[in-house]
Design goal:
Number of domains: 3
Helix content: 25-40%
Shape: elongated
Bound molecules: zinc ion
Distance between the termini: 23 Å
CATH superfamily of the largest domain: Bira Bifunctional Protein, Domain 2
CATH class of the largest domain: Alpha Beta
Structural class: alpha+beta
Largest sheet: 9 strands, mixed
Strand content: 25-35%
CATH topology of the largest domain: BirA Bifunctional Protein, domain 2
């Protein structure tokens, strides 16, 4: 391939909104564009083909069968199973213009075939992957990239990771110190919010408890009202609340219902003296002492409220929004918020009494993550096996007939063995070198006046920047040696 024929050409001015270094290089090099959709151009298509070739070879080798589907589903396959003896079955298909690889393992008990396949395929090109928990038997495999759209929490000491809405089930057993003081009712006129209340009483939000009345709706459309308690400094996470209650839907009760159930207008609800309504408290409430809560009377709050003594908790669960600094449920250390992109999703489901392992590999995100992890200040550094072109031949001066002739000869010879590029542009050597680094060719073969005088070409490796002069008629042999390909004589017929 000649560099002058590549479309679109490399860019120096980048559009706004590109966050990561890898994304910028992919853009700059003309590998892809994101506009109305994701478009891969010449180099991107080559890269993608190399990647899918590796993936399909591996899947077929490990017993997967390829299917093609208009929409991804395993049900069509399961329908065709006539005897348990046919199981287990392993299938894969591509969707979304080939960017999503769907994998199914049907009927193998507690298998990790797909999980292992995803790990094997990804670990070849990526490092530092994180398994982010999304629920029971469900996780996303992510790579951390600053400013990327997928937010999750990460424990740097044990590697535990979860999305914000998935409960952290850690046990809280350390009671806050101090004596339980006598409960008292205090006048708090029109102090309906935690902020106003804290200002008025001169306390911190974590010394108050927020009580919200929720309507919970089960799958069978049965409705129940619950009082939900979280520390005043925290928000209720409705997704976690739904999980804790085991219901289909939760929503805040309307103001009339709040007044009917608590006996006071909105803003003065509290757990003490509530009748006929379940109290659901965040795990942290059980360790709090002498806190402030609504008195269920207009314009009044209670101080020195203590759980167990002043009210009973019916259900204790993690129902507050996860924030940075919360405890890791595995090791107890503080978790931090991280950003990244999802490379794969994995889950296990039961369908018609068959265990089905499902995996999706997002190849568009994989390319982005690879670019992010295989680059330096100058540009991309593709692993040799999936590089769109293994080598580029650069005549320093494309107007010099002698240089062009030698460059063409080497280019044509190499191209018979491996995809090779030739920089045939009349650009300055500086521009050509810069582009070659940006595009990430593993091997650069440079032909200039000085090297020709000595009868050699300079071979330069992108990964290590190592340089070696090689006699012009030994260049192909040397490149094969570097890439671990069989010597030239073995490939010719
Ligand atoms: Zn941990």
């Amino acid at each position: 391939m000649k560099i002058s024929e590549i479309f679109p050409s490399t860019l120096f001015n980048l559009p706004a909104g590109l966050n990561s270094r890898g994304e910028k290089f992919l853009y700059q090099s003309g590998i892809l564009r994101t506009g109305e959709t994701l478009t891969l151009f010449d180099l991107g298509v080559k890269l993608f083909q190399n990647l899918t070739e590796f993936i399909e070879d591996y899947l077929i080798l490990t017993g997967f069968k390829k299917i093609m589907q208009k929409y991804p589903t395993f049900t069509d396959v399961v329908k065709e199973v006539t005897s348990p003896k046919q199981l287990p079955l392993f299938f894969y298909s591509f969707s979304s213009g080939g960017f999503h690889l769907h994998m199914y393992a049907i009927g193998e008990k507690k298998s990790y075939i797909i999980n292992n396949a995803i790990n094997y395929m990804l670990e070849r090109y990526l490092r530092d992957m994180v398994d982010v928990g999304r629920g029971n038997e469900k996780l996303s495999k992510a790579v951390m990239i600053p400013n990327a759209p997928f937010k999750f929490f990460y424990c740097s000491s044990c590697g535990y990771s979860t999305t914000a809405d998935y409960p952290l089930t850690y046990s809280v057993n350390t009671l806050l110190p101090g004596e339980e003081k006598p409960m008292e009712r205090v006048y708090t006129p029109a102090k309906r919010t935690i902020k106003d209340l804290c200002e008025f009483l001169g306390i911190k939000p974590e010394e108050a408890v927020k009580t919200m009345i929720y309507k919970a709706v089960t799958e069978k459309e049965e409705e129940e009202y619950v009082a939900v308690l979280v520390p005043g400094s925290r928000n209720i996470d409705e997704k976690k609340l739904k999980v804790a209650l085991g219901v289909q839907k939760v929503e805040l009760a309307d103001l009339e219902t709040v007044e009917r159930l608590t006996g006071a207008p909105h803003g003065f609800a509290g757990p003490c003296g509530l009748k006929g309504i379940k109290i659901v408290a965040d795990t942290e409430i059980s360790r709090m002492k002498n806190f402030v809560a609504g008195a269920n009377v207009k314009d009044y709050h209670l101080i020195n409220v203590n759980p167990g003594r002043d009210f009973e908790i019916d259900l204790l669960a993690d129902i507050k929004e996860t924030v940075e600094g919360d405890c890791c449920p595995v090791c107890g250390n503080r978790i931090t918020q991280s950003e990244g992109i999802i490379i794969a999703d994995w889950e296990r489901v039961i369908y018609q009494s068959n265990e089905i392992e499902i995996g999706v590999l997002y190849l568009d995100n994989l390319i982005l993550a690879m670019a992010e992890q295989h680059c330096d200040e100058q540009g991309l550094i593709w692993p040799e096996d999936i590089a769109p072109y293994k080598a580029i031949v650069i005549p320093i001066n494309a107007k010099d007939e002698n240089q062009i002739n030698y460059a063409m000869k080497i280019y044509e010879e190499l191209n018979k063995i491996m995809p090779t590029a030739l920089d045939d542009r009349t650009q300055s050597p500086g521009v050509k070198f810069k582009d070659a680094e940006l595009l990430g060719f593993p091997i650069r073969i440079i032909i200039g006046p000085k090297s020709l005088e000595k009868g050699v070409a300079e071979i330069k490796l992108r990964k290590t920047e190592e340089k070696v002069d090689v006699e012009l008629d030994k260049v192909t042999e040397k490149v094969c040696e570097i890439l671990g390909l069989p010597p030239k004589s073995d490939v010719e017929f």
